[in-house]
Amino acid sequence: MRRIMLCTDLDRTLLPNGSQPESIGSRQRFARLVEKVGLHLVYVSGRHRELVQHAICEYAIPVPDHSVTDVGTRIYRVHSGGWEPFEQWSRKLDNELNGFDLSRLKERLGNLGGLRLQEPGKQNEHKLSFYVADYSRREAMRVLVDRFLENGKAPVRTIWSYDEVGKIGLLDIIPAAATKLHAVRFLMQEECYGEQDVVYAGDSGNDLDVLQSEIKSIVVANAADEIKMEVRKHKRNADRLVIAGGGFKGMNGNYAAGILEGIARFFPELLRYMD
Q: Which is it for the CA torsion 179, 185, 188, 191, positive or negative?
């Protein structure tokens, strides 16, 4: 059996926690495929480890082989003994920071009106996270934060997002190299996978760096139209892109159904395992 690495975002990609409906049985069909074929499964999520583990139980999705968590700042190897941090990735991020200490920004940024430090469990030495009280003012806040980060001279990048459940803005400051694309390519190299044997599924702006790369990519049907347009516009090789439209095995293309639709297009030899 061909070795295939499937990397997927969780929220609103595999997990049906968006507003669009999920096709009945699609998640179960996804889990059976992973088990039957022995796909090398990687979850790539902004969630921290405990929330990924919670999602595995809550949504009855397969336990992965690896998990990229905390907005790309952590990689875990998952095996019978538990979740083992991938220290090679941590060392790589240390090298990228080159002695820059994220923690020294806590007080300075915390004194800015509108930013509040997130809970200790949502922080690590490669990730500094704040709540943004008024997300509508994020552009003005971005200017102020960039000033504190020496106008781009600090070896970090900022990620601004919105928590629809908590109804609050989020700001993550992480090493510039801690992107989903860098993490996926790192795992490909560590586990000896070529681009022809790797596929990535996503739905949102924080997946764009992978979706627009040369890696085979699936955009689930429930993704926003602007994401679909952006990927179509910048994906150099159209043969490496599937935007799920529904209809595959009577499913609607949302969430797990869209992932299955893309896998069937890229790896038709796996169709017989999808019943």
A: negative
Burial class (CB within 10 angstroms; exposed 0-12, middle 13-18, buried 19+) of 42: buried
| Per-residue pLDDT tens over the stretch 132-165 | 999 998 899 999 898 888 766 789 989 888 877 6
Decide yes or no: CATH 3.40.50.1000 for domain 5-73+179-273: yes
pLDDT band at residue 203 under the 50/70/90 scheme: very high
Q: State pTM to two decimals.
A: 0.91
The domain segmentation of the chain, as residue ranges, is: 5-73+179-273, 97-175
Match domain 97-175 to its CATH number in 3.40.50.2300, 3.90.1070.10, 2.170.130.30, 3.40.50.300.
3.90.1070.10
Single out the residue of 231, 204, 233 nearest to residue 216, CA to CA.
231
